[in-house]
Specification:
single chain; about 150 residues; alpha/beta
Length: about 150
């Protein structure tokens, strides 16, 4: 199975750490979303979309990238997010966008991450050191689990 993991990681590299861990675990191709040619995405059997969460929402530019992709059929996808709260519900917005574009979402992953945005900067941020080894291990288990289901 040919897998692409594409992501956007803006401030701290949290989402990039998760993306790289997943890609290494299954030997997937990995690219930032702005490096992906939308038509090359059709060469992949499974595509992962990852984003940090900003004020409760996935990155705007990543969502716009998804909107600009060519229509897909019979393509599977998974989504992953990192956020200060680590709320799994945040992932559903990204999954919804991907589904609306014709992908079949077969998995969702989220984890807490260091966050020092806005007022959190005043207290030195939250979740220092995250994603940590446990988070990275969980990401690896998640992606290997998806591959075993295929």
């Amino acid at each position: 199975m040919k897998v692409l993991i594409t992501y956007n990681s803006v401030h701290r590299g949290n989402t990039e750490k998760i993306a790289k861990t997943m890609a290494a675990a299954i030997d997937a191709d990995i690219m930032k979303y702005d490096e992906v040619d939308g038509y090359n995405i059709l060469d992949y059997d499974l595509i992962g979309f990852g984003s940090g969460i900003y004020y409760g929402k996935p990155n705007k530019e990543l969502l716009e990238f998804i909107d600009e992709l060519p229509p897909v059929k019979s393509r599977k996808a998974f989504v992953f997010t990192t956020s200060g709260k680590g709320n799994p519900d945040y992932t559903s917005a990204l999954a919804g966008k991907v589904s609306l574009h014709g992908f079949k979402v077969i998995g969702e992953f989220s984890c807490k991450a260091f966050d020092a945005w806005g007022p959190l900067k005043l207290i030195g941020g939250i979740n220092k050191g995250r994603p940590n080894t446990d988070d990275l291990n969980a990401a690896e288990v998640f992606i290997k689990g998806l591959m075993n289901e295929e």
